[in-house]
Every structure is written in structure tokens, then in C-alpha cells.
Amino acid sequence: MPLQATSGAASYDAFGGGVPAVPNYIEDVFSTYLYTGNGSTQTITNGVDLSTNGGLVWLKYRSGAAASIYHHLYDSARGKSGNASYNYIYSNESGPQGTGAYGPTSFNTNGFTLNDYLNESSIPYVSWTWRKQPKFFDVVTWTGTGSNRTISHNLGSVPACIMVKRTDNTGDWQVYHSSLANTEYLVLNTTAAKATGATRWNSTTPTSTVFSIGTDATVNASGGTYVAYIFASDAGGFGLTGTDNVISCGSFTADSSGYATVNLGYEPQFLITKVVSAEGYSWRLLDTMRGWSQLGNDRFLTPNSSSAEGGDGFGTPTATGFEYGQTGANTQHIYIAIRRGPMKVPTDATKVFSPQTATYSANQVVTTGFPVDMTLIKGRTITLGTIAYDRLRGLASTNTSPVDPQLITSDTSAETSGDYVNTANNTGYQISAGFSGFSSVNWNFKRAPSFFDVVCYTGTGSNRTVTHNLTVAPELIIVKRRDSAEIWPTWSSAMAYGSNNYLNYASAVASGNTDVLNYWDTVAVPPTSTTFAVGTHVRVNASGGTYVAYLFATCAGVSKCFNYTGNGSSQTINCGFTGGARWILIKRTDSTGDWYCWDSARGIVSGNDPHLSLNSTAAEVTTDDSVDTDSTGFIVNQLSATNINVSSATYIGIAIA
User: Fold this and answer.
1) What is the pLDDT of residues 435-480, one digit of tens each?
2) Which residues, at least 6 apart from 22, have a Cβ–Cβ distance to it below 8 Å?
3) How far is 632 from 562, CA to CA, in rounded Å?
4) Is 0.90 topped by the overall pTM?
């Protein structure tokens, strides 16, 4: 029987008799979407249903000749005023709303459509979309009375932040935040510190059904018209059980060096901050699509300014929150943070993995159809290692300095500035001129629950656990130290306790010695759905060392972390797929053997199949038939060229449908 709601949006049973409760996920209600203007009409397909549910679209030029254009905000509550486009207001200005034909012409079931405004040819833009959804976001409008009153809302929880703008006349934005007193307010369109004014919120804290406004003209002039954007905080309502938080509004105080660590309980994708204890600090808006990462060149915009996108080291997202820095010492900040998606477990492997081949020209676009969180790039006909880029370490959405950091899977080198990937967006990325002319294969991955995750962490030098967001226990963990030259420790759930392998070596599994035991403590602290353990070895946990971990798991119909014993001839590796494997990685563990890779873009067929090795710089080998197709997964054949099915030999690997 289907899951049934028993009480509220977050409670379920399996007894039937009611209307099935449909889970909510962050990817259904929020999107950061990057686009390049085409000077005509353009539809932004971001998966957010604005037509049915209503919401807010916030647009901004990022760079180029028109970059000083204001932040434009459009919403379903204010709608249109007889024009083709929705009415707009500016976050960086106090003026009334505009009603010209400037911006979105329709709110769709999966995004919105633009005319030629905010769509100038070849100009880069960013859009942020919020869908109205209980325990996440709401939009309301009203006409002022000039007297203390309450405004009803449908947030379904107590609002933690309310942004109010007068729309018929000039008036500064008034911002309520739960980290401030109900007699205090902020101004979105200025750099002012928090101020006291009892006539904004009538000295009254909001409730789950209403918020209060006083008599100030910025919120309640008689006959004036107003709009409010209302944000929830830690109210649950999301995920399969309806208990997951996806938005948090809070505060933190920077230390004497201007730094702070904030625990949200999840990894964020979007952050707005404001120093409230001192004058002169702009609002800061960061998101992981444009480039909020470990790179230290965070692409920020300022809601109180029309300025183009800038770059600075304002901190990094972590698996459980964010680190923030380079602000005034001992300053108090408020923030709005939104959880990273997707939250849904994938059912279609093509939405989270894409193998592609090409002989690239300068600045050629690689289209995957999804935001790429990691790409592995390998030249097919040249001697060159497999190059790894990922969004968390820095996969920028624009050409920036420093350029995106790279690691090489066959090399022990520390992280270096790469020159092969230029820009990344919601549907792929661009290959730089440095890689032009090479015949290459690209393996592109999207982070998703139960499938694949990326974690960056700083070592402590002591046994510890590292938090991840895979949502299931990882079955394959690959770690690389970033700040120093070290090999790639690799662990599989199919290996015995005290065993370890190395991605950059063809060697057999090592086990039993003290050196290896200091990598993982899988018996005392086995990997869980939220953590994995590392020991004291400098390759996984040196004090102050920086690391990246790539985590894989079995996801039904999408991926399979497998192990098998060779039979000396041919055998089928059943992965539970229905259309065969599109990517196969195999490593022999009882003896030497490369980390062999096959993919459908280069060919997994009944004849010879090209293969590459992650631990080698060698060019592609095309002269053997070591693997064959099978609808449930793939077939391994014993040939001396690869030795991937030697009798009684043991193997590990991963396949993706």
C-alpha cells in the first residue's frame, strides 16, 4: 500500500485509507539557474512549478557591459499590470515597482519565460527561484491602513525572516529577522546596521498564521501597497518522512580574526548574510552554482548594490553548514541558508551520469543536461593522466583567477591550478583552449543521494569521523590529500578490515600492517549513512591537511558497487540494470591489476572495447574484448590484456547504468 498521511505533512503510515502524502524536496521549490542571454525569447527550465504554486524570481546581470543593471524581483502575488511582463522591484533601490515589459512573460510549470530584457545577447545572468511552499517560503501583498494590524500568511510555521517593500511609492526595504529583537529591523537596499523602530513590527513576534506591522509608511501607510517575502527556518516539512529542514535563518558572531563556523545540520547551496552590528557592510549573496567553494574566490553579489559579481574568500560550504570569514572582527551577522539538493534518490542514471567523447575545439561546450559536480577528463590518444575536477573544490561558472583546481588520478601531486575547464553551469561546462585538439573522454557525475557524494575536510591528526551526505553507507571511498603530494587511499566494503588499496597504483590490496590500519577503522567505526572514519595517517588525516573524498554506493537501477571472484573464462556481473552498464570500473585486489575503465561513449559492444586506466597515463587500448554487454550489467571475459576474470582472483568495482 502507498504511504498515507496520518496528521500533517510530515506524518505517514502504511495502512491506507487516506490521501497519499507526497514528499517535498528542495529541488522542487528552489533553484539557482545560470543562463546566457540570447537577445530574444528564452525559457528557463529549472524544474520549479511557478504556474501552479506561485513564487518569486530574482534576476541579476553578473558581468559584462550591462553588469551594473539592478537586481530585478518578480513574483506571482503582484503579477502583471496589463503588460506582457511581470511587475518588478529592485532589491538595491527604494523606488516603487516598475510595470513595463521588462522581464519574465510567464511563470511556467517548470520555470519561466523571458523576453529580450534581462536576456541581452551573450551576457551572463543568474536567476534564483523560490516556489511558495509551507515551511519554506511565502509571498503576500496588502494595502496599508495606517493603523497597527496583522497580515495573514500561509507559511505554515513561524516566519524567521520577512522582507517588506512598498510598491506604489518610494520606501526602503524593511527586513525582520528572528535573530534580532521584534523592535529592530534591517534595510535590504543599504549597508546600514540594525536599527530600532517599534513602528515596523509593532513590537510583536510573528506567529505561524500572521505577522504584525505598525504604522510606519515603509510597511503600512494608508492606501499604500506592499509585498512581503516570508522565509521559514528549521521547520521540517521536507524529505521522505517530512522531517528534514531545507532553510535556516540564524546569526553568528565572527571571532577576533573575522571568522566563524556555522552548523546547519546540512550542506547549503545558497547563502545571504549581513553584518548587523556595524555600519558600512553590504549584504552578501553566495551560491554554489556561480562558485561558492573551497577555491577561495567566491563569486558574490550584493543585494543592496547594482555592482557586477565580485570574487573574494568569504568562506566555504561544509557537509554540515558553512565556514565564513574575512569580515570585521567580533561582528554579529544574520543569515538565510538553503539546503543543497537534490534530495530525491535518482531512478534514471542519465540524470546523474554522462560519458562523452569529442575532439575538442577551444571553448567547446560539453552538454550533460545536469549540473556537473565532478568530471574526470582523459585524453584517449595521448600520454596524459586522468584529470579530476569537482564543484566543491572549485568548478567555477566564469573564467576566474585562480582557475579551477585539478587532481590527477595517476599522480601523487598536490592540487594544482588546472587549465582544461573554463566555465560550468546547470547543463554542463566548457572546455578551455588548453585542451583543444585532443581526442578525449569525459565522465561526468552529479551528486545525488544513494549514488555519489563529494566531501572536503581538514585533518585533525586524531582518529575521527567525517560527515557526508550520501544518505547511505558508502561502499567505495577514494581520498586524496590536496595540499601535499600523497597517494590516493581507496577503500571498498568488499575488502577485509585492515585492508586498503590505492587509486594511483596497480598493486594488490595491502593489509595487516600498521601503516594500512591507520587509514580506516572500519570495524570499530564502520561507515554509516552519515559518516565514515579515518585514522591518523597523513594520507587521510594529517593535522591541518586538506582532503577531498569521493563516495559511491549502490543505487537501485542506477549504480552498483560490486565484487566478484574470477572463473577463468566469461561470467555475467548482474547489477540489477535493465539496459546494461554505461560505465564500468574494475580493480583486481588479490594481485596487481589496473583500475580499468570502459564506457558506452567509446563503446561497450560485443567486439573489442576501448579501455583506459585511472592509475596510468597511457593512451587508450582498443585491441581486446575484455567486457561485453548484458542488459543486467555486463560480461567479463578472461584475456591476458586485462586479466579481469582470472580463476579464483578477486575483484572490486562500480558500474553505472
Assistant:
1) 778 899 999 999 999 999 999 999 999 999 999 999 999 999 999 9
2) none
3) 13
4) yes
> Is it the case that residue 357 has pLDDT exceeding 70?
yes
Residues 259 and 321 placed together within one structural domain of the fold? yes
Mean pLDDT of 59-70: 80
Q: In Å, how far are 44, 75, 120, 289, 624 from 35, measured between CA atoms?
A: 8, 19, 11, 11, 43
Q: Check residue 19 and give its pLDDT.
A: 47
Any domain includes 415: yes
Q: What is the pLDDT of residue 579?
A: 97
Q: Who's near 130: CB < 8 A, 6+ residues apart?
A: 29, 30, 55, 56, 58, 136, 137, 229
Across 19-23, 273-277, 428-432, least confident range: 19-23
Q: Which residues contact 271 (CB under 8 A, 6 or more apart)?
A: 284, 285, 286, 287, 292, 317, 322, 335, 336, 337, 338
Contacts of residue 620, defined as CB under 8 A and 6 or more positions apart, other chains included, come to 380, 381, 602, 610, 611, 612
Reply yes or no on whether the pLDDT at 37 is more than 60: yes
Pair (331, 252) in one structural domain: yes
- C-alpha–C-alpha distance, residues 375 and 370, integer Å: 12
Cα–Cα separations (whole angstroms), residue 34 to 46, 74, 109, 125, 547: 10, 17, 18, 6, 29
Non-local CB neighbours of 10 within 8 Å, separated by 6+ positions: 236, 237, 241, 242, 243
- Number of other residues whose CB lies within 10 A of the CB of residue 412: 16
Say how many domains are in the chain: 6
CA 554 to centroid of chain Cα atoms: 21
Q: Is residue 4 part of a domain?
A: no
φ, ψ dihedrals at 351, nearest 5°: -90, -5
Handedness of CA 178, 184, 187, 191 (dihedral sign): negative
Q: Kindly state whether residues 627 and 537 are assigned to the same domain.
A: no
Query: pLDDT tens across 584-616, in order?
Result: 999 999 999 999 999 999 999 999 999 999 999
Length of the chain, in residues: 657
Question: Which three cell numbers, joined as nine digits, stand for 601?
Answer: 561513449
| Domain that residue 260 falls in | 247-339
Report helix, strand or coil for 231.
Answer: strand
Q: At 334, list the grid cell.
A: 544574520
Q: How far apart are CA 625 and CA 604, in angstroms?
A: 9
Residue 13: inside a domain: no
What is the Cα–Cα distance from 126 to 32, expressed in whole angstroms? Answer: 7
Count the Cβ atoms, other than its own, within 10 Å of residue 320: 17
Report d(CA 620, CA 602) in Å as an integer.
Answer: 10
Q: Say yes or no: 110 and 141 in one domain.
A: no
**Do 458 and 422 have their domain in common?**
no
Bond into 610 cis (ω within 30): no
Asked if residue 516 and residue 467 are part of one domain, the reply reads: yes
Is the residue at 290 inside a domain? yes
Q: Which of 339, 361, 393 is the last residue of a domain?
A: 339
* pLDDT value at 8 more than 60: no
The Cα 155–Cα 338 span in angstroms is 16
Residues 30 and 119 both lie in one domain: yes
Residue 386: exposure state from Cβ atoms within 10 A (0-12, 13-18, ≥19): buried
Nearest CA-CA partner of 537 in 570, 505, 559, 513: 513
Note whether 334 and 408 are same-domain residues: no
What does the pLDDT read at residue 402? 54
Which cell goes with 201? Answer: 513590527
The residue among 317, 339, 361 that closes a domain is 339
